[in-house]
Design goal:
The structure is a homodimer.
Chain A (H helix, E strand, L loop, with lengths): L2 E8 L12 E8 L7 E9 L2 H5 L8 E2 L4 E8 L9 E4 L6 E4 L1 H6 L3 E3 L17 H14 L6 E5 L4 H12 L3 E6 L2 H10 L4 E4 L5 H8 L4 E6 L3 H8 L2 E9 L15 E3 L2 H7 L2 E4 L12 H14 L6 E5 L4 H9 L6 E5 L1
Parallel strand pairs in A: 9-10, 9-12, 10-11, 12-13, 13-15, 16-17
Antiparallel strand pairs in A: 1-2, 1-4, 3-5, 3-7, 3-17, 5-6, 6-8
Chain lengths: ~350, ~350
């Protein structure tokens, strides 16, 4: 079977917000499968902030990576038979061959977990890298205890919505910081956050003081910058900060990164621990993701975790979905249905 | 016995560098000892950066705290007989009564350890809070491994000189950052640092790249601010940062703290852990200081740790010694001989 495939290639390092001309959509013919390989037709493709962040660390040109869910349409690997579904990091392409060694490693490609009747798209959301990021990044780094106060920034995004709900499951008081009144309403009314703050219209320092009169114990940071300095200024002794991302700076010139109020005085006098992480840490050398997926799936089934999607339809709309997400237009997880 | 005592009382919160008129020297008569109390005559008084830092967190007026070594001149406590020496946190005073409960707690007052013939002043230096700070803050938070590259700021100060030497004992490559050519020379020639950088005259970013071509694994931070952002920008995956102090900001207006390049991007992509600490963490509820003192004393005896003192003589010179230390005029530990 000869297959024409399309993929997005990044030609240039982005300057500021990614531009359409930074990408080229390349159409090419896929070679025949070799032993151990599979041919996958993408069905759902994920757009996430880290795609922007890693741009500056990746030599150009490169194929736009990212998680996707696809249907195996041809297989020369008995572990991945035709018609099963695969989650992979093959990114923005409509058809793709997954190599034998990638399949064997089982971290950048693995079978879509049994979602027990729930929608496939969960595989790039709560039951995928996003879920692992929220689960491990929050539970293993913040180590929350019942009754503690947790702050989440980027609260209405894919990871933020999950972290806040996991914190509620663990008996914490949860305060979300997000960028619109609609997001605030969503977090408070639909996801059960105790309080949400619109950082674009409210004074974060005083709003947070009012929302967290006993101080902040855990902070899950998706944004970095001044907001983080303010939150850390209100933390209690031995507070824990999990740094998942720094989206406030992703579009900045790497040679001239933004400044913010220094955090060292807060760190010393409150004895705060701050740790950055990438979710892959819990996939290698031992893969702990499947165990997390099992627990996350139970929470979704019980309704303790609600998922919310911002769905864009069409392979041609990947770029728009990505930039829209970077601009904060999404509520919940941004995904593209191919 | 009726004793006239003098003590420094802080009357105002400092603005910028402490001023002489922020202090008042009060002369008063000590009451007779009650059961369980001791009367101490100060011999050595320590001046340290944290005295400046805690000023803003302490309601005024307050007696200037700080570590001191004194001789017991009268005792109603059999555990602390006359003529033994006591380390206490009683600070800037010439005679002082130490209360029963303070003596029983054994953290803010304890017998000067047996220094096996070495000078008493070690009790407010390597075999005191300063030593505990360097020992626990570096070993327990940075968790250095042999062959790793360690950066220390405030390298020529009391804690910095100890951290660098402990790092050498542990088989690390040590780079110190300090504020004068004399300090650089001292660190390289006398203390065996592999390299020292004068932050006032050198471009830290390029000097550090040259000194640490394989990147930085551990960073012991005494200063905070932009230097710390630069160091963290050159750290390796899973780097560890121990934040001991933030002396670059201690004289700043607390309502308007300085800004520096944000560190969150470094934290995320290198998965760096940053932790602030106070040495008292290892004194309560279980007192681990004596075990550290034992190991530190052995290192001093073997010559693996060299101590250096900046000695000011006279109770009346405490203020000058303090401000001189804040201005970076000291090489090694600043102490006052009463």
């Amino acid at each position: 079977m000869m297959v024409k495939a399309r993929k997005y290639v990044v030609r240039k390092h982005f300057q500021g917000l990614p531009k359409r001309f930074d990408y080229e959509v390349v159409e090419y013919e896929l070679p025949p499968l070799e032993d151990g390989e599979i041919l996958v037709k993408a069905e759902w493709i994920s757009v996430d902030p880290y795609l922007r962040a890693f741009n500056r660390h990746t030599p150009v040109p490169y194929d736009q990576f990212g998680y996707q869910i696809g249907l195996v349409v041809e297989s020369r690997n008995p572990k991945y038979p035709k018609n099963c579904r695969v989650v992979s990091h093959k990114g923005w392409c409509d058809y793709v061959i997954i190599e034998k060694n990638v399949l064997e490693a089982e971290t950048e490609a693995y079978k879509l977990p049994d979602l027990q009747g729930l929608p496939d798209v969960l595989g790039i959301d709560a039951i995928g890298m996003v879920g692992a990021t929220a689960y491990f990044g929050f539970l293993h780094i913040c180590k929350p205890k019942a009754g503690e106060t947790v702050v989440v920034t980027g609260a209405a995004g894919a990871v933020g919505t999950l972290v806040g709900q996991i914190a509620k499951i663990k008996g914490c008081k949860v305060i979300g910081i997000a960028g619109s009144d609609a997001k605030v309403k969503f977090l408070e009314d639909e996801l059960g956050f105790d309080k949400a703050i619109n950082y674009k219209t409210e004074d974060i320092n005083s709003a947070l003081k009012e929302a967290a009169p006993k101080g902040v114990d855990c902070y899950f940071d998706n944004v970095g910058g001044e907001i983080s300095s303010i939150v850390m200024g209100q933390m209690n002794d031995f507070g824990r900060v999990s740094v998942c991302g720094s989206i406030s700076s992703y579009n900045e010139d790497p040679r001239q990164m933004p400044q913010a109020t220094i955090i060292q005085p807060s760190l010393v006098f409150k004895q705060i621990r701050v740790e950055g992480f990438l979710a892959g840490r819990w996939a290698k050398p031992i893969n702990h993701w499947p165990a997390a997926f099992e627990e996350l799936l139970n929470w979704v089934k019980k309704g303790d975790i609600k998922t919310k999607y911002h769905i864009t339809v069409g392979f041609d709309k990947l770029f728009d979905a990505f930039v829209g997400m970077l601009n904060g237009e999404n509520l919940g997880k941004s995904v593209v249905k191919v």
